[in-house]
Structure formats: C-alpha cells, structure tokens
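Student: I would love a firmer grasp of how sequence relates to backbone shape in proteins. I am handing you a single protein, as its sequence and its fold in token form. I am told such tokens are a discrete way to write the fold. I hope you can help me see how the letters and the tokens relate. Take your time, and here it is.
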Amino acid sequence: MRRTQFEEFLRRITPSMSEPSASTAPRPQRPIVPFLRLGSGDDPPHLVAKKCKHCGALFWGNRVACARCHRSEGFEEIRVSNRGTLWTYSIVHQSMPGIPVPYVAAIVDLPEGISVRCTLVDVEPDPAKLQFGMPVELITRKVREDKDGNDVIAFFFRPARTA
C-alpha cells in the first residue's frame, strides 16, 4: 500500500513506541478542542457534548443558549460514543501550506444523534476504500507541541476494527 503525504505526516508526528524517550516523566498533554477528554488509566480518550437541559439538543463546545429551543437554562456535559458511522466525506487535494494532501475530511454520525467533523485516518484517500455508513472509531494522536512544550492532542476517526 502506497503511503500518502498525510499518512507520512501523521507517522512523523506520532511517537513510536520503540523510540527512546528523553525523559521517563510523561509530558503534559492538552486537547486541541475543548470537547476532547484525554482519559487516563482504563478510561480511554472520548468526546463530550453539551446537552440542553430543556429540550435535549446536543452541541459541541460551550453554549449560552440552545439553538433549538432558544432557552438558556443550562447544559449538562455528556460523554458520547467512540464509535460512529461515516456519513459523508471529501478527499482534500489542495490545502494550506504545511498540510500534506491528499487526506479525508469527514462527517461522522454518532449514536447519540450528533455529528462531528473530523479527519479520517488509517485508510487510503480513495473512494474505492471508503463507504458511506462504514463503521468508524475515535483515536487520538499528538499533532504538535505548544509554546510551553505540552503535547497537543487531536482526535481523528479511522475505520473500526473488530473487537
């Protein structure tokens, strides 16, 4: 299988388990978006949505008022599934400088009734390899370091592996 520029980029930014670490102490990590929880121990990384306490609508990120019922009584944070289905995708062939192409920009539907925009990884950016409705699963990877030396962690989806 031919490795795309985007896969090569992900390989370069993802530390190998066999590479020696500069320090035995874990590096501080921070999520790239506020609705990504990095997890710890037996709790895997996951996404959290805000649920309107009045009508139950789900949203990503913080809200002042609900876009469905327009109420501002508040929201509760709920954990959403790490598995979903590929609703639609686009193979990106031209991007900003420094972003390797081609890659798969996707929208994934989650069982809770909310969709998330993401990058689909670990699959060739080829329509023959992608199917609408295919099962996908959440993964996280280090994408860069911030100015303070913290690992910045992003979420991606990939074709689901059988459990």
About this structure: Residues 15 and 142 are 8 Å apart (CA to CA).
